[in-house]
Structure formats: structure tokens, C-alpha cells
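dude i think i finally got it to work??
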Amino acid sequence: QVQLVESGGGLVQAGGSLTLSCITSRPTFSQYAMAWFRQAPGQEREFVAALSLGGGTTAYADAVKGRFTISRDNAKKAVYLQMNSLKPEDTAVYYCAANKVRFRSGSSRDTDYDSWGQGTQVTVSS
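look at this
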């Protein structure tokens, strides 16, 4: 497991934008697929977006497709989630996660990830 630190959450009006960041000190960061998940109050954690090692392959939950963009900067050991056209239903704690196996493709299953950040709160007001 590795330490992941998220930032960038906050309060935004519906229709607004936020960019979340997740950084790590892991030397082999570029060898792991990364993902973002979120958990709203009283709900289970759900998949948001995943990204391959080099960033060329992405996957998104239907609820965010076309509005959110996941990206990574391997030199900075960082992964980002650009969120546009935010809706009140996007309100949740957002977590970044690192795949447990090197060189594995990105996945929407949270059981494929064994390193998680502490989460950053995103609140979208109507």
C-alpha cells in the first residue's frame, strides 16, 4: 500500500467546476492504474473514473461521462479529476485509489485497489 493525498474539494454551485488532485510519493507510480471513487452520505462507495498506466485509456461511470475527465502526470506522481457541469447529486467524499497490481489495466471494481486516500469533500449546492 502507498500513501495518497487528495485535495481540491470544496463547495460549488450547480453548473460549476472543480479539479481534484491526488499525489503520492510512490517511486513506481507510473506502473499502477489509478481511479477515483466517491461516497455520498448513506450510500455505498461508487466508481467514478479510472485511468491506465500511461493515461491513454480511461473509463467513466455513466453518471459522470461527458462531464468529468481523469488524467495523470507521471512525472509529478499525480492524478487529477476535472469536474465540470457539477450537479447536486455529485455531492460526496471523493477518493483516489491505486491498483493493487502493477501493470494491470484500470478497473471499476474497488476490490482491485488497495491504496486509498483520506478523501476530499465535494459539495454542490442547487
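The chain is about 0% helix and 50% strand.
im so relieved honestly
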